[in-house]
Amino acid sequence: MQIKLLIVDDNQMFAEGIWTLLEDTTDYEVLEVLHSGQDVLEFLDHTPADVLLFDIDLPDSSGFEITRLVRRQHPGTQVLAISAQDDRLTIEQMLQAGALGYCLKSDGRDELFSAIQTVASGKPYLPAAYLAMRQKQKAQAAASPLSGREVDVVRLISEGMTISQISEKLAITERAVETLRKSIYKKVGPQSNIELARFVQKYHPL
Q: Where does the HTH luxR-type domain start and stop, copy by copy (predicted)?
């Protein structure tokens, strides 16, 4: 069965280039190429698509908001974000908005096809560089002696928050914050806010 695709990208040359690539196979049916995020929901209202191949950097709309709306109103359509942005924050914000996959514009033809097939089957697809970074972060966190809640407290202490402010931020008692602080200092030693910030960046980067 062919995968029905809706392509949305304001760069006409790039969008039509993808369309041409996909037309060379029998696995895909490109329903339409749109150049405005504002047209996406209206199109899907009358023409269902399996995968929305969606440039999140459209000038007329928020990629995050369009993704949330598509997933809410058309849950049968999976969103595969495509972007030149390879930073962790953008990728994770798109995933939180409901995208099942994220593909970089710098990736090659085979990566794009693999991403489409993976997302169409209901499985997540993420850039190899992002997965490698997440694996490195997990390894760094495993080397840390702190618990998850202690990391939260260390992060806030390093930002200069008081015990009272941390208590309010984390919705725990000041006594609990103090207990956690003592445990942290027992494990890593009393350190300045700058040193704590370096510790967090090394073992628990955001």
A: 139-204
Question: Tens digit of pLDDT per residue, the chain (206 long)?
Answer: 789 999 998 887 788 888 888 877 778 899 999 988 889 999 999 999 999 998 888 877 788 899 999 999 999 999 999 988 888 878 888 999 999 999 988 888 888 889 999 999 999 999 888 777 777 666 555 556 777 788 888 888 888 889 899 898 888 899 998 898 888 887 777 666 777 777 777 766 65
Q: Which residues of 12-27 are buried (b: 16+ CB within 10 A; e: fewer)?
A: eeebeebbeebeeeee
C-alpha radius of gyration, the chain, whole number? 22
List, in order of start, the domains of the chain with CATH numbers. 3-130 (3.40.50.2300), 141-203 (1.10.10.10)
